[in-house]
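Handoff note, outgoing to incoming analyst
You'll be picking up this chain. Sequence as last confirmed:
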Amino acid sequence: MKPIWGAVLLVALSFGIVFTAISCKKDDNPAGPGPTGADLTINIVADAGASSFGAAPETVLVNQTVSWKNNRGITHTATASGGPVAGQWNTGNIAAGATSAPIIMDTAGSYPYACLIHSSMTGTLVVLP
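Most recent structure output, in case you need it:
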């Protein structure tokens, strides 16, 4: 009888591994999964102009996190641009309907940012001490 229970246990474990592998799927958003819990989520609402990233400027405190949610039909980014902050942070590509991984804003200041794919899309993020 013991060999039967060992075989049953082996089959059950095999099914568990197979179902776990099937449930894992490729992430189409290289910026990461749509996280929850960012202190601020900025909505991407247009494909050109200073109002592309919703209300401007958005404000957070030092050490708070910011994510960007792409409410448009094409891929966008949000990347620090201009002056000494250029390239300081970059969301990577954010697919339509996706939300970027949160970025910790650890230094006070005013940060202009833009979409690397569509340079006419601009916004400003203010980080307060």
